[in-house]
Amino acid sequence: MVFFKDEEMKFFLNKIGGNIFILDQDFTIQWSNDYTNNLVNKFSKYINIHSKEELIGKSIGMFLCDIGAQLDILREGPFPYETIVTLFDRYTACIIIDPFFYKGKYNGYVLTLKDVTELENKMTDIQEVIDHSIILAYCDLEGFITSANDKFCELSEYKKDELIGKHFYFLGSNYYSREFYNDIFGIISKGDRWKGELKQRTKNGLEYWIDVTIVPLMEDGKPNQYVVIQHDITSRKKTEELLLRSEKLSVIGELAAGVAHEIRNPLTSIKGFTQLMSTNNEYQKIILDEIDRINVIVSEFMLLAKPHPVHFAPRKIVPLLKHVISLLESEANLKNVQFHFHIKDHDTMVECEEHQLKQVFLNMMKNAMDAMPNGGKITISVRRNKDRVEIGIADEGIGIPQDKMLKIGEPFYSSKENGNGLGLMMSFKIIQNHGGKYHIESQENKGTTFTISLPHC
Q1: Which residues are in the Histidine kinase domain (predicted)?
Q2: Alpha carbon distance 407, 425 (integer Å)
């Protein structure tokens, strides 16, 4: 090549930096700059060459094993041709190839090779840090997920192939309208960033909260995709909910003390006059028992303001349930509701405060009746499960929507028009004070089952 007689050109290419090779049209090395000495020293054990002078006349394929497969591309262009290649199965290099013209004549190729192994390793380390610390996903311009990292999959409980191609909307579709997401994408499509908090649902139906930042990645002044950066704030949200519930309970406590005092005074008078009435002893007994039960309820209401010790005693669970049903029989007949029992052990006993458990059963049975405006069947079941007693109260009513399930038992939350949520709130508190647990299963338009689990005695 005439080029090799041009000392000025050689001097210039040696000063540029980087590994530069001049190749003929068959990709044989005709010249390389001084920087390639470092490359030769690094790879000498793989190519059995120890100086850049020994490279002359050798094929560039000694570095690039798959060069043969790229010959057509290299000859036809387009140029510059840039690609990432693997060297000797352990190094990574970026190569750029251009046709080499000298004094207007095509003489072969100029190949620049840069070892980017260290940079790639650092990028891999950075990516691993990101994958283990940041919840990350990418969306196309329409909002469809194109990739997601492991943390995103871990939080959402979806596999990557289940996420790819889904619209970002689907994770929160139970809580937000499509228009809400359209507004978000309207903002980011202009190149602006969006930041906010979103509630979403996992594949298994669990709710979680995320702090979201959506950043447009720009190209030629326009977004070409969006990166969605998330942080799991579920714990923080739960703490906020607990604080809010605590504030509500504090307000209820103050209210309870005043209301209970105002109810108790007239109850004393009603009970006194009832005892003086000359009437059927059975009816009188029921009235007096109910007055006593109202007094107990008022006392329980007072617990919200000032808790007091509760005295537990062994009681058979079935008679308690039957007593509550007897109180509801008249209302049940009017509403065309029938009670059915499935009891395997009539002598099952629990350690309890009798009036409190009756109140729990009454609240849940009344809720079951209210859930069946056209009548239906309420099934009461009692069974032993190892060292616990499970009481089930199942209706055939309208059911509870999934997005409302987690709010059941919150003060002032009720799905009923005139409800206040205090009945179930007190019921759950009583169950917990008895060392019990509760579980709710519901399907819309099929019914709801409340299961109470109490320690057996």
Answers
A1: 258-457
A2: 10
pTM higher than 0.70, yes or no? no
Which pLDDT does position 64 carry in this prediction?
Answer: 67
Q: Are 367 and 424 in contact (CB under 8 A)?
A: yes
Distance CA 457, CA 454 (A): 9
Of 361, 328, 349, nearest to 431 by C-alpha is 361
Specify whether 79 is located in the same domain as 194: no
Integer Cα distance of 131 and 184 in angstroms: 25
Q: What is the CATH number of the domain that holds 323?
A: 3.30.565.10
Residue 323 within a domain: yes
Task: Judge whether 127 lies within some domain.
Answer: no
Q: What is the rounded distance in angstroms from the CA atom of residue 53 to the CA atom of residue 31?
A: 8
Q: Encoding tokens for residue 291?
A: 């007055």
Number of domains in the chain: 4
- State whether residue 102 is helix, strand or coil: strand
- 301-319: per-residue pLDDT in tens? 665 555 556 688 999 999 9
Q: Tokens 């070892």 identify what position?
A: 115
> What Rg value do the Cα atoms of the chain yield, rounded?
39
pLDDT 10s digits, 190-223: 999 999 999 998 998 888 999 999 999 988 888 9
Contacts of 225 (CB under 8 A, 6+ apart): 138, 139, 140, 141, 146, 216, 217
Whether residue 249 sits in one domain with residue 332: no
Query: What is the average pLDDT across 39-60?
Result: 86
Establish if 124 belongs to a structural domain: no
User: In which element (H, E) is residue 81 found?
Assistant: strand 81-87
Residue 259: domain span = 236-308
Average pLDDT over residues 334-339: 92
Q: Are 382 and 348 in contact (CB under 8 A)?
A: yes
Same domain, 354 and 335: yes
